[in-house]
Design brief:
- The chain is α+β, with helices and mostly antiparallel strands.
- It has one domain (3-91).
- 30% of the residues lie in helices and 31% in strands.
- The protein has helices at 3-10, 14-26, 60-66, and strands spanning 32-33, 40-44, 48-52, 71-76, 79-85, 88-91.
- Strands 1-2-3-4-5-6 form a six-stranded antiparallel β-sheet, sandwiched between helices.
- Mean pLDDT is 91; it is low at 1-7.
Length: 93
């Protein structure tokens, strides 16, 4: 199995990410907050976590979050593996 194929299997499917995304922004069960930043997050399979965008940052994504858009990131082992903006999942290579 190629490394890219193995990596793709380790990232949750878009449908799983979207369920967690809706939970994250609707305040569903399993939503937690990081102690230091206060950012909300949801644990995902494959040791991934869905984290809301920090609106206090100075990025284009933070600007979107400040304007009312729903922005979150799927992270694994400290790396961004996907971005979700208003329910649209984009997998990052």
């Amino acid at each position: 199995m190629a490394e890219d194929d193995r990596h793709a299997e380790e990232v949750p499917a878009a449908g799983v990410i979207l369920v967690a995304f809706e939970k994250l922004f609707a305040g569903g069960r399993g939503v937690r907050r990081f102690r230091q930043s206060g950012l909300r997050h949801v644990e995902l399979p494959s040791d991934c976590v869905l984290v809301e965008q920090n609106p206090k940052k100075s990025s284009e994504w933070a600007e979107l979050a400040r304007s009312g858009r729903r922005v979150a990131w799927v992270m694994r082992d400290g790396r961004y593996v996907a971005r979700v903006v208003d329910g649209e999942v984009t997998f990052l290579s």
